[in-house]
Write a structure and sequence with these properties.
Blueprint: H1 7-10, H2 12-17, H3 19-30, E1 41-42, E2 53-54, H4 58-64, H5 67-87, H6 89-100, H7 104-115, H8 122-133, H9 139-146, H10 158-185, H11 190-198, H12 203-214, H13 216-228, H14 236-241, H15 247-250, H16 253-263, H17 267-295
Antiparallel strand pairs: 1-2
């Protein structure tokens, strides 16, 4: 009888639904961890992982001796640092602006339009980027040339390319990133805004003293996670928007792993770089969490 009244028995369907996400994590997240030992072996594709010879830290010495590795590491920090400075605050600002809209219909329309870029493939975005920012035939440069201000090498000069890279990233992610901040704002006590209105506080004062503090915990948690990803960068964006001319800035660790792993078959080296990313990322996220706990009292754990 007690068993039938248990939470597990009454809601077994919910626990059954957990099988799919658990299976996903075990198969695609925990299962591949075994392959990390490739970083300590002279891996031979035909011999397999177990039959390949152990070489200890020789693979890491080889990787750390590559000039291309340090260039890719520098670019990874550079691009992630620019995203941290410019792209991270953008969803916060957008969420605050959307939260201040009084027209519900316009707010829903704005959210729908701003969310759409998140669902567009980076391959399609890459095609759009070349159509819009190409030096000779891009829409932007054609318009600028008409008014005597162009053309600008948005995709062929490495410094202009940085501007293009960051701008496209903000455009693609700002709407989707604002969702979690808007959700956090719904938990703010509305009586605080009413009291601020009674005291004659301006809209800016309400935002600064009520809205921002109300979502500060969410901001800190997401900032910690962002710092933890400083050495980890997606493959699609720099690979598709980048080109040979701007490789000095577009070659990052993910493209470096692709090049030495899949193109040249140095699987041990590629695995070593991936393990390096994981360890450094863990150090970053633990350090950021520790600092946040000490300074603000908020953190992930």
């Amino acid at each position: 009888m007690m068993y039938k009244n248990s939470y597990l028995y009454r809601y077994w369907q919910l626990y059954l639904m957990l099988i799919i996400p658990l299976a996903y994590f075990f198969i695609f997240k925990y299962g591949p961890i075994y392959g990390v030992i490739i970083a300590f072996k002279d891996y031979n594709l035909f011999r397999g992982i177990n039959a390949s010879a152990w070489v200890g830290l020789d693979v890491f010495r080889d990787v750390f001796g590559m000039k291309g590795f340090y260039i890719a590491l520098r670019n990874t920090f550079l691009l992630n640092g620019l995203d941290l400075v410019f792209a991270f605050p953008a969803p916060i600002i957008l969420a605050v602006l959307l939260n201040e809209l009084r027209s519900a219909k316009f707010k829903k329309l704005s959210q729908t339009v701003l969310y759409l870029p998140h669902f567009i493939s980076w391959v399609i975005i890459g095609g759009l980027v070349y159509q819009v920012f190409a030096t000779k035939a891009g829409i932007v440069n054609l318009v600028l040339a008409k008014i005597g201000l162009g053309p600008f090498p948005f995709l062929t000069d490495k410094y202009y390319w940085l501007f293009t890279y960051v701008s496209i990233g903000i455009w693609q992610s700002i709407g989707w990133g604002s969702i979690i901040y808007l959700a956090a704002m719904t938990g703010i006590n509305k009586e605080l805004y009413d009291a601020a209105d009674v005291d004659g506080a301006s809209r800016f004062r309400r935002i600064w003293h009520i809205t921002i503090p109300g979502i500060s915990t969410t901001i800190i948690v997401l900032l910690i996670l962002k710092i933890g990803d400083m050495v980890d960068i997606g493959f699609d964006r720099p690979f598709i928007i980048g080109n040979v001319i701007v490789r000095d800035f577009s070659d990052v660790l993910s493209t470096f792993i692709y090049r030495i792993g899949l193109q040249t078959g140095q699987f041990s080296n590629a695995t070593a770089v991936g393990l390096f990313q994981a360890i450094v990322g863990l150090i970053f996220i633990l350090s950021a969490n520790y600092i946040a706990k000490k300074t603000t009292g908020d953190g992930i754990v």
